Amino acid sequence: MTSKEQIIKAARKVFERFGFNKASMGDIASASRKGRRTIYTHFSGKEEVFRAVIDTEVQKLADKLRVLISQEISPKEKLRQYMQTRMNDLRELTIYYDALRRDIVSDINYMEDIRKEYDRMEVEMLKAILDEGNALGEFDIADTFLVSEAIVLAAKGFELPIFLGRSDYDHNRLINPLIDLLFEGIKKRTGSSSTKQQ
């Protein structure tokens, strides 16, 4: 682990404990067991350290999702696992959500840039899954980019309870119905149990 990576790892714990506003470069230096001069060799200030921590958190999740979509499983199962992995790992983005909850966006403009960049990466990854499904004849989607954007937007609804800090929230029970809805739609089908009862 490089000196910079050690600083980022230590800074994550500092921000998690104190939050952005109360954390200081001195706290980060102490936690990383580095001198302030060493910290400033890698970072211009606390804001840049904070961004590095968030970038690292988000990038780890993005890398994990990229590995998942490269697996040799069906596109439908890939999409299901993608959503489950995404939501399970989002709970680990504690610094990211703490920044949003404390409205640090108003003080650090790049928070919105990070959100937009992550959304763009997600659309690309989801589009790759949908394009694969089309190519294999498993899906029939006219505009995979548009549908990918819609899925990203829908997934944000799953994030709200996490954002609000609800510890009792179980997103897993909602993922399968969402995936089934994406694939099966909501129209009534001839021969369904509901049709037979009429």
Structure report:
The protein is an all-alpha fold. The chain folds into two domains: 1-43, Homeodomain-like (Arc Repressor Mutant, subunit A, Orthogonal Bundle); 54-186, Tetracycline Repressor, domain 2 (Orthogonal Bundle), CATH 1.10.357.10. Helices cover 74% and strands 0% of the residues. It has ten helices and no strands. α1 packs parallel to α6, α4 (46-69) packs parallel to α7 (110-135) and α5 runs antiparallel to α9 (172-184). The radius of gyration is 21 Å and the shape is elongated. Residues 193-198 have low confidence and may be disordered.
In short:
By secondary structure, this protein is mainly α.
Can you lay out the helices and strands and say which pair or pack?
Elements: H1 3-22, H2 25-32, H3 36-42, H4 46-69, H5 75-90, H6 94-101, H7 110-135, H8 144-163, H9 172-184, H10 193-196
Helix pairs in contact: 1-2, 1-4, 1-6, 4-5, 4-7, 5-7, 5-9, 7-8
